Amino acid sequence: MTRDLADDFPLPFPLRIGSGINTGYAMVGNMGSGDRPDYTALGDTVNAAFRLESCTKKISRDVALGKTTYQYISSLGVSPPLFEQFTVNLKGYETPTLTYACSFAELDSFLQTRP
Q1: Where residue 65 sits, what CATH number does that domain have?
Q2: Which residues pair with 99 in a beta bridge?
Q3: Which whole number is the average pLDDT over 46-58?
Q4: Count of domains in the chain?
């Protein structure tokens, strides 16, 4: 989709969209003032997912998974070559974090082979 957009609306740089996926506990609810409420999710799990999305630029991949998410997906029989392991420093976290990442094209190819 981003390639189609770039063809229609040329930019001086390639358009890239990243996705961070993390699994864990979070709180959800309305936040903000009475006239501008915003239903949102909060918690370390959500913050880590946002930071994983940010790291997709550094590791040149489209999708970055947290360790727990990767473990769940691995239990479904995902072939190990689909996701490459990276150690990244996420903003706001003191210790390096393991992430597993792939491109949208690789993920799409994998999903096309699933029943």
Answers
A1: 3.30.70.1230
A2: 86
A3: 95
A4: 1
